[in-house]
Amino acid sequence: MAGNQDLFSQYRMGDLTLPNRIVMAPLTRNRAGDADVPASLTVTYYVQRASAGMIISEGSQVSPQGVGYIHTPGIYSAAQVAGWKKVTDAVHRAGGRIFIQLWHVGRISHPDLLGGDLPVAPSALPVEGFVHTPGGKKPIPVPRALETDEVPDIVRQFRQAAENARTAGFDGVEIHGANTYLLDQFLRSGSNKRTDKYGGSLENRVRLPLEVTKAVIDVWGGDRVGYRISPHNTAHSMSDSNPRETFSYFTRELDKTGLGYLHLIESIGGRTEFVPPEARLGPALRRIFERTFILNGGYDLQSGNKAIASGEADLIAFGVPFLANPDLPERFRQNAPLNEPDAATFYRGGAKGYTDYPALVDR
């Protein structure tokens, strides 16, 4: 909505009323406990940030096959569901709204994290990069390509995770189709060299992401489901022959499903200035997608307000600023200084750099 809207305006997203347009972006923090169950500190962490218009949780793997990082939470076991229920109950008591991000890393993993199995992918291609395993930092191995008859099980994993998320009390779910992980791997031509119905043509490459989206919408209804994309992310050997064509077509198909929101990371390394103006896809995708449009990537108070007022986006997602500033909406409202993030603690265990960032008013 253009005009006099800003980050502090209310927003109606389907049947949810958000008190502001400031979204907490999904942030991997590597603080899960044994068996990848959300820890007690996780409850505190999300409650501290409940003043967001909406929280999108850290990525949570939809199955043991989807694990790619140590100490990240899942949403596939009864214990994980119970752990997340403590989080959602506490966030709701604090007046917040929280979606969970459903995550399958695909090829960005290692046998040490998968019970000795190889990571799965659309195609058996080498991948640049490393993963952190219980045995230390190790290079990503060449994954194995999923057989055609295995692909429906990926859809089943996401559907079951969506059902588990309802049991855990979330307000909705975001499908993680960004940042070089499994659904992104199927979508982009550089990582998908399949010759079956899930690869080759653009129509085939979007098939699995759309099947997953429709399965999750079957569980939740379109208004409570979002999808995240990152067209500019080239980490982990990712590429596409024509990103504008690929993501425009995919957005058009997502729009047909009744998906509630599209969440676009329009940055490389979290900084919007790394995307040349002529390479931006936000304006084109905004025209295609008819419902809620979220932008993420290096925004601050001024640029976020500008994007809302101009109609470029309905909501703005903030990552690192929310990590270091639990009361980010109030700091923005007062134009107060922001806490400096401690990058050394981003992915380490414990309260330091997690739940100990001060609020403006000590609560």
Tell me what the structure shows.
Helix content is 30%, strand content 16%. It is an alpha/beta fold and 363 residues long. The protein has an eight-stranded parallel β-barrel, surrounded by four helices. The chain has a two-stranded antiparallel ribbon with strand order 1-2. Strands 6-9 form a two-stranded parallel sheet. Helix 1 runs parallel beside helix 2.
The coarse silhouette is globular
* Helix content class: 25-40%
Structural class: alpha/beta
Order of strands across the widest beta sheet? 3-4-5-10-11-12-13-14
CA-CA gap between termini = 34 Å
Question: If helices are DSSP runs of H or I spanning 4 or more residues, what is the number of helices?
Answer: 11
Integer average pLDDT: 96
Unreliably modeled segments: none
The proportion of residues in beta strands is 15-25%
> What order do the SSEs take from the amino end to the carboxyl end, as H and E?
EEEHEHEEEEEHEHHHEHEHEHEHH
Radius of gyration based on Cα positions = 19 Å
Largest sheet: 8 strands, parallel, barrel
Total strands: the figure is 14
